[in-house]
Each structure stands twice: as C-alpha cells, then as structure tokens.
C-alpha cells in the first residue's frame, strides 16, 4: 500500500474527506458512532491524522499560545510566584484545547522563538515592552496579554493593584508608630546594592516601580521622607549581600517594606544573623503571600496577591483575544479596546511587624 492519506481513510469508510477531517479536528460535528468508525479505520490503516502544519495553515490557526518569560525556564519554575501563576493559567486554558509554549524574552544563540514559533496569541509575563520577544510578537500583529507589566497600546492587561499594596504596607507600619520606614526593592540598572539617589526614578520593572510609588505615597502623606534601598535583582545571590549591607547600615530604619516575600525572608535572616530581633529591632513586611511568607520565622506580615485570579483573568483575556482574531478582520479587531483588569490586594498580618523599640 502506498502512502495513507485522508482520502484513503475516506474511501475505506465511504465518507467524504471533510468528514474524516472532522473526526480528528471537529468531533462535535459527527455522531459518536461515526467518529469511532472513522478512527478505527484510520488506526487499521496506520493513519494518525491530518498533518498539523497543513491543518494550521488551512485553519489559519496554530492552536497554540505563548507565554514570554523574563527569567530562564529553570528560574521561572523555582519562583513560587511565577509557578502559581503558570499553574492557574494552564488549568484555566486546559478546557480550551490551546497548547502553551514557554518562550524566553531574549534570543539564544541567534534563535528567536518569538519570531519563528506558530502561535495564535501570547501572554507577556513581567517583561518590558522593548524586549526582543515582545517586539517580534508585536510585529507579527499577534494578540498580546500583558501580565504584571503595563500593556502596549491596543493590548489587554492583567495587573495587580501594586501601588495600593505598597500603600497598605506603609500605612500598617505608620499605625504601629514607625516613622523611619524604608523600601527594599530591585533595580536591574544598578551594578550593586545601595540607597537610591532618586527614590521615584522610573525603573524598567513595572511592578517594582508601582510598589515603591505606593509606599512613598503613604510616607509623603504622613509628612515623612521615603528612602529606597535597591538590590540588582530578585534572586538569592543578589539579595543576600544587599540585605546584609542594609542591616549593617548606621542609619538602619526601624521598618522595611520589601518588594517580595523572598527579599523579606532574606532580610529577616540577615537581621537575625546580625543579632537583631524581628520584629522588636526591625519590622519587616513582604509582598505576594508566597510560600516564603509562612516558612520564615517569624512568619511574614505581607501583602497578598490572588494568584488564581491572575491566571484565570489572563486565560480569559487570551482566549477572547484569540476568538476575536479568528472571527474578525484585522481592521475590525484593531477597533476594539482590549480590557485591562486590575486585581485588588490585601494585607495579611502575621508576626514580623510590631511597634518600634525606643532607640537609646
């Protein structure tokens, strides 16, 4: 027997090529009995189904969406915040039948997956709009959903109310009586840790900028100056030396609001290693309510984000964008204004904050 094709199966069963195609790609168009008969004939002939590339070309759809990551895939899966978001996103997308491809933000060895991979749409997760992957996806005119990053014009967005979170953290510390409150965050433009010369200088990380801005808003509303201490990135090897320097600083604050629970956990350990007691000598507030918040001792007071809602809303925006792109012409699709969802946050009180100890 020669090469088995769609027509071979159709001839064996006595149906049209379209009916065989529907058995593989649109099962709802056939009765269960007819579909089983077609699949049994295909299996007997050794036919596994229409060529995926040809089918995607005919349908003008790949059936796949991308998730663009700033970090490497290994780092992303080790990050509990990113992993919780990915889990919710994947679970929400599962019923749609869309496959998910993870894409690095930058090219590796000249290969640019965002340029070459067949995709119907993409989630941009905490990546700046000028990264190479985002630029290529935008050039391809794919529907984009930005998560934890200000969306490009014409794109959907799912963001936390990070500014409100920074404000909540500082207001809690002010209510405890703290007047010397600093913010610990990240700034990839730095070459090493240190105090920021301009606390409100915009950085490349949207989330960091918003959380710092909210904290400074609350401090300034209370008539207090805000100080910001920066490390290069939100990774263990870059946080550890930075928090050690902060704890050893002669003008150490009485309380610190941290960009993440990971930073807060490292700050707590650095303070304890220096002979300080948390929260008596130093109050610490985290952000995210990740696993780090409850495994460090004392357990962290932190700003909680809803990982499940973030994943669900991103999946919803993604599937709606794919549906619009499939059904509408390019011009009609551009006329619609994609939604921007902003998810509220709340403060979780635990054991890492207390009124300041009087300084003798």
Structure description:
This protein has 360 residues and is an alpha/beta fold. The protein has three domains: 6-50, Orthogonal Bundle (434 Repressor (Amino-terminal Domain)), CATH 1.10.260; 64-160 and 307-343, Response regulator (Rossmann fold, 3-Layer(aba) Sandwich); 162-305, Rossmann fold (3-Layer(aba) Sandwich). The protein has helices spanning 6-13, 17-25, 32-45, 52-59, 73-78, 80-93, 113-116, 132-139, 162-175, 206-221, 236-248, 261-273, 291-295, 307-327, 330-335; strands at 64-69, 99-104, 121-125, 144-147, 156-160, 181-186, 194-195, 227-231, 255-258, 283-288, 301-304, 340-343, 346-348. The strands form two sheets. Strands 7-8-6-9-10-11-13 form a seven-stranded mixed sheet, with helices on both faces. The chain has a six-stranded parallel sheet with strand order 2-1-3-4-5-12, sandwiched between helices. Strand 3, helix 8 (132-139) and strand 4 (144-147) form a beta-alpha-beta unit. Helix 1 (6-13) packs across helix 2, helix 1 (6-13) packs across helix 3 (32-45) and helix 9 runs parallel beside helix 10 (206-221).
